[in-house]
Recover the amino acids of this structure.
């Protein structure tokens, strides 16, 4: 049994509907004793040449343009990653489900091999419950709680994976309860569909209006009808 601790990095979405491209994949392989036995790291070349540029987070360059130019296509990287796992009995560990959503959005556009995507674990959820918090906490804050702070520069896929592995080892040592999902796609489906608060119909998340990057509770159709009613009321008051 191995634990494959994974982190993904991507381009920043600066405006609504701007495409996002994976730029980096980092992973740590841990055995059942909590020992680090391997690592994987690769940059990923965006399929759109416009995004072959420095990736900045909080005005700090996290991925250099040169690294992306020399990187390989996502299909090649995912194929190498699958070979690197090289184990039929493993559990994937991510810090949160956000990377899972990101991975699936990329898969929809590029159709690479995801046969390795199984036995998924959201370590952020397990750690948050262990410390008695309600709201999910960041990886940086978690490392401050269990160690002397984040090791290395954050928003580097391999560094993030290594720090996540440290937290996994910490939970092992504390005999904490860790939840593993045998089928990550069940969780994806739950989050990709939601019920409209007005018409009560269950619809795909893209059918809902967005505000500041967050999905609102009204579907696009109900929102349009609501705006139309407001316009009609204003016209009636003017008349």
């Amino acid at each position: 049994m191995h634990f494959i601790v994974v982190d993904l990095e991507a381009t920043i979405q600066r405006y609504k509907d701007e495409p996002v491209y994976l730029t980096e994949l980092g992973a740590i392989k841990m055995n059942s004793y909590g020992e680090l036995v391997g690592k994987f790291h690769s940059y990923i070349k965006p399929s759109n040449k416009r995004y072959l540029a420095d990736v900045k987070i909080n005005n700090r360059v996290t991925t250099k343009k040169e690294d992306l130019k020399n990187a390989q296509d996502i299909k090649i990287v995912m194929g190498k990653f699958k070979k690197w796992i090289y184990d039929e009995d493993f559990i994937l560990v991510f810090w949160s489900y956000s990377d899972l959503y990101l991975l699936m959005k990329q898969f929809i556009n590029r159709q690479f091999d995801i046969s390795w995507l199984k036995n998924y674990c959201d370590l952020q959820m397990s750690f948050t419950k262990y410390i008695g918090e309600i709201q999910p906490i960041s990886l940086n804050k978690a490392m401050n709680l269990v160690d002397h702070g984040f090791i290395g520069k954050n928003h580097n896929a391999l560094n993030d994976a290594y720090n996540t592995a440290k937290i996994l080892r910490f939970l092992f040592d504390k005999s904490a309860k860790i939840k593993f999902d045998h089928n990550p796609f069940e969780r994806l489906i739950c989050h990709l569909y939601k019920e409209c608060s007005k018409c009560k119909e269950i619809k795909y998340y893209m059918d809902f209006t967005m505000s500041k990057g967050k999905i609102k509770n009204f579907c696009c159709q109900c929102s349009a009808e609501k705006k139309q009613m407001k316009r009609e009321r204003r016209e009636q008051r003017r008349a």
In short: Residues 63 and 106 are 19 Å apart (CA to CA). The mean pLDDT is 86. DSSP finds eight helices and eleven strands in the chain.
